[in-house]
């Protein structure tokens, strides 16, 4: 078991660092409302398949299955999280597997309508991120969607300090001082450069700056709505 897997197993057992929830992500719910307004149920229906890269306790797959009847597969490094997800997904058309997202996605070509990468792939290095992008493109059907949420670098004092004090061997990457793991943080320009060749970028939603009296608060995030050409 590597350090990252051990951290998440402990976190799902104790919630020592993060407030973990079984409620679906508000950002994902906002995305589905936007998708439904624009396309009705074209992409949100029982014939549509979803893959969640970093499914955790299954909360987002459960939401998509219960709200829209979607079928899906969830992958996560933590066997503790996957056990919890299976317990809460009985009678739903969802399956789970303990698996690293650095490995190829075990899905057929163009079999998937929606891929979720929510606060997951920032732990990958450049070559691994590129390999994952290629896998996402392979499994997505033409016109399929990637909902991507990650850390945002711009105007985040926490990121500025982490990059200064704990730099990794790649621009905009650091070694987390508490977790001891590699993390990459995106700029808006980097997101555009990385995705725009293969995806139409429909929407980029940035969280607030999270400053209190000029001091850093919560980390900034960005959610991106991406449709495969």
Automatic annotation (TrEMBL):
Pfam families the record matches: Methyltransf_25
Classification via Gene3D superfamilies: Vaccinia Virus protein VP39
Ranges of residues in domain Methyltransferase: 50-144
CDD domains linked to this entry: AdoMet_MTases
Swiss-Prot/TrEMBL keywords: Transferase
Gene Ontology molecular function: any one: transferase activity
Protein name: Methyltransferase domain-containing protein
Organism encoding this protein: Candidatus Kaiserbacteria bacterium RIFCSPHIGHO2_01_FULL_54_36b
């Amino acid at each position: 078991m590597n350090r990252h897997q051990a951290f998440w197993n402990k976190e799902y057992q104790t919630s020592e660092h993060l407030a973990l929830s079984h409620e679906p992500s508000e950002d994902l719910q906002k995305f589905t409302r936007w998708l439904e307004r624009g396309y009705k149920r074209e992409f949100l229906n029982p014939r549509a398949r979803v893959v969640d890269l970093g499914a955790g306790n299954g909360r987002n797959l459960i939401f998509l299955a219960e709200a829209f009847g979607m079928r899906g597969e969830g992958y996560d490094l933590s066997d503790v999280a996957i056990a919890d997800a299976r317990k809460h997904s009985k009678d739903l058309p969802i399956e789970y597997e303990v698996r690293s997202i650095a490995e190829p996605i075990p899905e057929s070509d163009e079999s998937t309508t929606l891929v979720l990468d929510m606060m997951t792939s920032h732990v990958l290095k450049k070559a691994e991120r590129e390999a994952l992008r290629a896998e996402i493109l392979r499994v997505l059907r033409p016109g399929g969607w990637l909902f991507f949420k990650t850390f945002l670098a711009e105007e985040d004092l926490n990121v500025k300090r982490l990059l200064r004090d704990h730099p990794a061997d790649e621009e905009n990457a650091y070694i987390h001082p508490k977790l001891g793991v590699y993390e990459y943080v995106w700029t808006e320009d980097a997101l555009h450069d990385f995705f725009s060749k293969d995806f139409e970028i429909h929407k980029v939603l940035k969280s607030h700056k999270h400053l209190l009296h000029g001091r850093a608060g919560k980390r900034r995030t960005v959610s991106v709505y991406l449709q495969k050409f």
